[in-house]
Every structure is written in structure tokens, then in C-alpha cells.
Amino acid sequence: MVLTTQSFEEQLTEKLRSLRGTGVEEASEKDMYYAVASIVQEQLSASWQDTRKHYDKREERQMYYISMEFLIGRLMENNLQNCGLLDTCTTTLKKLGFEPELVYGQEHDAGLGNGGLGRLAACFLDSVASLRYAGHGSGIRYRYGLFEQRIIHGNQVELPDYWLKEEYPWETRRADESLTIHFGGQVIPHKRSDGSLEFSYYDTDEVQAVPYDVPVAGYQNDVVNTLRLWSAELAPENTDILADAEGKYYHHLDHMHSVEQISGFLYPDDSSYEGKELRLKQQYFLVSATIQNIIRDHKTRCTKSLKNMHEKTVIQINDTHPSLAVPELMRLLMDEEGFSWDDAWNITTKTIAYTNHTTLSEALEKWPVSMMENLLPRIFMIINEINERFCLGIYYDKPAFRDLIPRVAVIADDQVHMARLAIVGSFSINGVAKLHTEILKRSEMNDFYRIFPEKFNNKTNGITHRRWLLQVNPGLSSLITDAIGRGWVEQPSKLSTLVRYSNDSPFLDKIADVKKENKKALADLIRKRTGITVNENSIFDVQIKRLHEYKRQLMNIFHVIYLYNELKDNPMMDMTPRTFIFAAKAAPGYYMAKEIIKLIHHVASIVNNDAAVGDRLKVIFLENYNVSLAEKIIPAAELSEQISTASKEASGTGNMKMMMNGALTIGTMDGANIEINDFVGRDNIFIFGLSSEQVHDYYANGGYNAKDMYHADDRIRRILDQLYGGEFGSQEIEFKDIFYNIMYNNDPYFVLKDFDSYIDAHELAESRYRNHRQWQQMSTINIAHSGKFSSDRTIHEYASEIWRLSPVPKA
Ligand code: 26W
């Protein structure tokens, strides 16, 4: 149903009255927000129901994307846009005297993810629905999302993110579809009359998984899929006894508390693994609820029998976090549905596919056998058997690989290796960029690649251009549409026709004007949040991502220090002014990352307050990086810092977002940077540093000595001496640990080794920037090739090569 501006306004008035008890004149922005959300949710509801019915009627094959993280950010503008109401709503709000941005800004970000992996899941859901695929997300409804970051005297302080403080208008609780999850207890085997074994469970702790559904609307296509988020609650039967004697009462309150903890908070660790029992509980909770739900769905949508489950269902697991899906599906098929091991294994390994997102060894999940055994006794038995059968299978059927067994066993040195479980139990294993997949095949997972070469494939990541271009950068979007028509919105590959405009002066001028506007808006935000006025004609040089040593924010701030030193030595130096913009959260327990945040702040306070520098150099750290902040920074970015130690960044997705908004990349040959380079060509990107092979070679054979760099390069020595001497700290605050890590840990991320070529790349970038026309040309070429990095392309590949899904025809 299309709403006219007039009927939209009428509905708004009615919603304000009925929901908020207020009229337009007295309404606050919050009132307006809820009124608009309610209209949108109603619009979506009808299509939501129709979509479900349509899938049921066609017995459609469904994809379920299981992920511990969905970093969705705000949904208001996204949902308005996808139901074709964004312009109507924006116009109406303005007419009624409201600032639309402030109204939409009332929504608290749903920060149910750490970074790349969680945001990727959110982009994927958008593309799946927009391309008319029958696919859904399944995750956890954490009561607290990723912590809020405050910076106090340069130190990161974490505050809880209670995002559900006010009603979340997009979710619907479906208590009637709750499921029971069992933890702990005893497993007792019984012999059936045919001699086979049956297992029953005793004394388990029961937890209710209550689903909350969030609609996932496709772009103006009437498809509404579902993101189902599970909340842990005490089963209602178990809460009745609360009324007992006082002692028991408190006991039960404690119990309730510990049950609710399961969906209490998101673990704030990115790329590092800790064997915490509560996290294992979360993983099993998510997996068991999802698989039970899938089985129930199958029975209502298709047949009572699960024999053909793998024809009607495919499950994609987002990293190893949900890899208990393998034993859980086995358990349900055998213990609840009566399948034999072989039949259950056949179905399971034809249903589950696994995506790997990192090769960092510190991120590999391994659970202690004792923990798994106590918490999930039946699941552990099944993993044991999977392991035994897998190892025996190699021993007898693939004797050539016998010597690999100790390295591929799912259970080894008293630990369950989750990546190995995921590989053995799934039919597809994919990396997230070409280089990443090659590294998996050639080194990290080479043993498995030799055993199962056919399972491995690449799916280079992508981002939804509907949010990351159309929605966040309306100026650039209409400029593109004016030039090449609207086709790119449905088919982002059409952006490539923009290449024709890379010599069109009026177009290039407009590209420059749009960037200028966006920079102005960001400068305003910076002024509001930090009190610092930046030079709007400076180069906006942006590094926004989780803080991690391999991402080398340290190298970036070293470069700032280098420029500062140059300016101090030569105050008349001719340089293009620069504004360095950082935003990053550090994992709360990651000491070195927090030191780097502190260093950035201390360098900033010196550089920003040095009158001799003026507005030629500014360092801005924007606190509490999240999706909404990214949406404001990215359209204004000119230089995109993608400077990881080669081989360490699986793909990166911020690189794609900034490219799509016309920023040029300064980066290493790592992750998807390599593919960006392939498309735009060497002349339209600033590449520097060691290759992944060189990095690999140094790790394997040595030959790099950080101290040599210190002695050989005056610029480097000066910076390190300044650090050691406390020049960027005060008496108490020094950065000696950063110094030691580089000098005595031999600079594990090759910051010094790549520094010289990094400076060169920056100098080249600066000289290109001075030639405005050339810069705008390069920028246009980047935008033109960014269509390849739309998650629509990625999802088409997943759908045809892994999921075997076709777009569902309209009803
Ligand atoms: C168990 C602790 C833990 C938590 C998160 C281990 C590993 C992770 C993730 C795999 C980290 C992550 O987000 N990886 C990023 O995934 C993105 C999407 O594929 C890639 O673009 C990034 O390069 C990769 O770092």
C-alpha cells in the first residue's frame, strides 16, 4: 500500500494520539519517532505475513544464517526506504516542524555485534531480502549490546549498553513459539528392542528460549524475511515455586538471574578467544533454539518426515561460534527423530555450511573437554563419536593422510577444536576474500584442504549499497542517478558506467561539491562532540575500525608524529593540511590496544594545541564508534586507511564502504584491498608495504630485526625516543610498553618495516590531492568499481554456489 503525504500525515496524527497521548504541537521527537515506527511496522506486517505464507505454500527451500552477532544499528531510515516511505516521511516531518534527522536519531543503535563479522551478517540479511531469497537470521537478543565507550583522560572506559531501556519498536515477542534448552544433567543409554541405543536425559537445567522477531524488509519488493533473536528466560513452570519459603525464594531469584544471564550481554572480544563457560552456554543456547526451530518449521512447511531436510534447508554458520549446530542437529535427528547415525550424518553434512572470518590463531575457539562434558554431556558424546569416526575413516579409507590425524582430530590435547568440528560437519567452507581463502587452503587449513579439497571456496565480502550509499550519502546518490539513471540501485554493477564521467569536468566538480558538503557536516559533528574546529579544506584521513595491533593504528599515529616533527623542524613547510580521524573500540582486556588509544589522545592534545601547527594538522578521536557514527564519517572520508599487516585482515569491509563513497584507499596488499586494487588499478589506489608472502617468510624464517630499523632510520629513531622519553605523556604517563613491544618483541606487526613505504604512499597521496581534478577522477573511478563490493553480488554467489537458492517469484 502506497501512502500519500496527506494520508501519512493523518496517520501520524492518529498514532501520536493513540500511542503517545499527544498532538503534533506538543509532541517530542521521541513521540514522533514511535509514531513513525508504528506506521512503518504496520506497513511491514502485512507483507511479512504474506511472505511467510508464500514460502509455506511453495514449500520453499530456506536458508538460516546463524550468528552470535548482528550489528544492525538503526532500522528506521532503512525500513522507511525499503517500504518506499522515506521521502514522504522526511517531507512530512519537515512540514510539521521537525528535524527528520533528530527524529530518526531517537533510535538507540542495536549494537549486537563487535565489528566486521556482525555488520556483515546485517548487510547479508538486507541483500537476501532485497534479492528475494528465502533466508533468515538467527541470533541472540542480548539485553546489553557492545559496551559504550567513553574516553577519560585518554583512557577508554566501558559503560553498559542498555539498548532496551525504551521499547524497541521493531521487535515482536512470540512467547507461543518458545522452546526448551537443556544444560548439564545425566545421559542414560537404553537398548531398544532392535539392539540400537536410545538416550534419555535426567536432572538437566531447563532454560526457555523465547523468540523476538525483527522484520527484514527487502528493497521495495514486498519481501519481508525474519531476524529471530532468542532471549533466555526461566521456564514459567519453574517460576511458580518462587512463592515458597523465603530461603527458596532467594535461591530461585538467583537461579532466574543465572538463566537470564545467558542472553545478558555480548562478549566484547573481537578476534580473540577466551574459554568462558557463559559464552559456551550462549553458543549452545543459540544453536539448540535455532535447530529445534528449523525442525519445527520444516514439519509445518514441508513434511512431517525430516528425510528430505537437506533439500529444504541450508544453514550457514557465521564463523565457528555456532558450530555446535553440527552435533545438535545430529542429536535431534537421532534422539528425537529416530534416525540412525549414518542417516543423521548424511543429512547434517548436506545441510551445514561454514564461513571462516579470521586466520589469527588467538581467535581459534577451543573448549576444554571437561567444560563441554559437564555442560553438554550428550553433545560431547556425539562430538566424540564424530571425532572417532572421522579419524578411523581417514585411517582406513584415506591411508595416505594417516599422518595428518593428530593435526586434524576434532578432540586433541583435552580440547574440542571448533573449527575442525565445523569443517568435518559441513559441506562448504568459505573464506571472505580471495587472499584469505588462498591462505586457508595453502596454510591455515591445508591439512583439511588436502582431505576435502571440494569443500573449500571463496566468497569475497560485500556491503549493502542501499545503506552505505543510497541512505547515508543522498547527495552522491542523486548525483549518480542524474548521471547514469536509477538502475544502479537495483543493480549495483551498473555503477561501472560512471567510468565514462571520469573525464567530465562538470561531473567532477559536482563530485567535489558533494564531498565538501559531507565534510562540512562531519566538521560540525566534530565541533559539537569535541569542541575542535577542523579545517574543512584539509584532507580527511580516516581510520575507523576495532582497535587491534594487526590493524596498525599505531603506524598511523606514528605517521602523524612524523609529520608533526617535520612541521616543527620546518615551520614554513609547504603541506596540504590534514585532519586525521580515528574511531575505535578496544576489547576491555586488551592492554596494548588501550595504550594505543591513549597514545592517540596524547598526541592529539599536543598537536591540536600547538599554535605553530595551526590548522595544518589535527588529530580527532571520535568516541563510541558504532554503526550510526560510521554512517556520518564515511560519506566525508577522502583517504581510507586500510593498513593491516599483510595476511592478517581476512577481508575488511570498511574499505569497501569508503571506496563506495569516493574515498581513495591507502593500504597494504591484504584482504579485499587486493581485489579493490585489481578493479581500480594501481593508479587509483595507494598501495605500500610488505606482501603477505614476505610477511609469511619473515615469520617462518626470521631475518627481520626491528632494532636495525631503529638504528638505520632517523625518523623512526626519533619517534621511538620521543615515546620512551615521555614526550607524549606526562610524568606518570609514558608509552614505554609500546616502545618495548616494538624493540624487544621485534615489532610483531612490522610497523617499522613498512613505515618508510607508508610515508612514501602518503606523499604520493598528498601530491595527487593537490591536483584537484585528478583526485576527483580517481575518486569517480573508485565509486564506479564499488558495485562489485555490494553484498548483492556476494549473496548471489552464496545463493547459487552454496545455498542452491533461486529468487522466489512474486506471489
Ligand atoms: C571468539 C572470539 C572471536 C570473536 C570474533 C573470534 C573471532 C571473531 C571474528 C572472526 C572477528 C571478525 O569480526 N572478523 C572480521 O570479519 C570480517 C567479515 O568477514 C572481515 O571483513 C574482517 O577482515 C575480519 O577481521
UniProtKB/TrEMBL annotation:
Pfam families: Phosphorylase. It catalyses: [(1->4)-alpha-D-glucosyl](n) + phosphate = [(1->4)-alpha-D-glucosyl](n-1) + alpha-D-glucose 1-phosphate. GO terms for cellular component: cytoplasm. Its EC number is 2.4.1.1. The modification N6-(pyridoxal phosphate)lysine is found at K657. Keywords: Allosteric enzyme, Carbohydrate metabolism, Glycosyltransferase, Pyridoxal phosphate, Transferase. GO terms for biological process: glycogen catabolic process. One of its GO terms (molecular function) is glycogen phosphorylase activity. SUPFAM superfamilies: UDP-Glycosyltransferase/glycogen phosphorylase (SSF53756). It is an enzyme of class 2 (transferase). InterPro entries: Glycg_phsphrylas, Glyco_trans_35, Pyridoxal_P_attach_site. Belongs to the glycogen phosphorylase family. This is Alpha-1,4 glucan phosphorylase.
